[in-house]
Design brief:
This protein is mainly alpha-helical and 144 residues long. It has a domain of 71 residues. It is 63% helix and 0% strand. The chain contains 5 helices and no strands.
C-alpha cells in the first residue's frame, strides 16, 4: 500500500482520502491509543479547516448544489413570469416594476449559477484527468 500511494502524484494533504481512493483502507486495522509524548498542535479550527479542505478538494457536492440552486432559481423565475402575466391580465398590477424586476433578477442569477455549475463540472472532470491516477490497481500477479 505504501508503494502504491507513494507513486500517486498528489499535492494535497488529504492522505486518508487518497488511501480510500486506492481502496486499501479495508486492509488496515488499528487501535486508537493515548498520545505517548507531547500535546497535539491541532485545535478545533485547524481540524475544521482540514476537513473543509478535504471536502472541497475531493467532492463535487458543492458544484451539484450550485447547479441545483441555479436550476431552482431559473425555474422559480419562469413560474414568477407566468404568475405576473396571469395576474396582470386578470387582476391588474400592484406596484409597477417591482415584481418584474425581482423575477428578472432571479432569472439572470439562476442562469448564471446554472452556467457556473456546468462549467465547474467540466473543470472538475479536467482536474481529475490531470491527476493521472490509474483507474485500477493490480493487487497480485504471477508474473516475475
Amino acid at each position: 500500500m505504501i508503494r502504491t500511494c507513494s507513486i500517486l502524484p498528489t499535492s494535497s494533504s488529504g492522505n486518508l482520502i487518497v488511501f480510500t481512493s486506492v481502496s486499501f483502507l479495508s486492509d488496515i486495522s488499528f487501535e486508537n491509543r493515548e498520545r505517548v509524548a507531547g500535546e497535539t498542535s491541532w485545535n478545533f479550527w485547524s481540524l475544521l479547516k482540514y476537513s473543509l479542505e478535504g471536502f472541497i478538494n475531493f467532492s463535487e457536492a458543492l458544484l451539484n448544489i450550485a447547479t441545483a440552486s441555479g436550476l431552482l432559481s431559473f425555474a422559480s423565475s419562469i413560474l414568477g413570469i407566468i404568475f405576473i402575466i396571469v395576474r396582470k391580465l386578470t387582476i391588474g398590477g400592484s406596484v409597477n416594476g417591482w415584481a418584474s424586476m425581482v423575477v428578472m433578477m432571479l432569472f439572470i442569477g439562476g442562469i448564471q449559477l446554472l452556467c457556473l455549475g456546468i462549467l465547474g463540472k467540466y473543470i472538475s472532470k479536467i482536474f481529475l484527468e490531470t491527476k493521472k491516477r490509474p483507474s485500477y490497481f493490480i493487487k497480485e500477479t504471477n508474473l516475475k
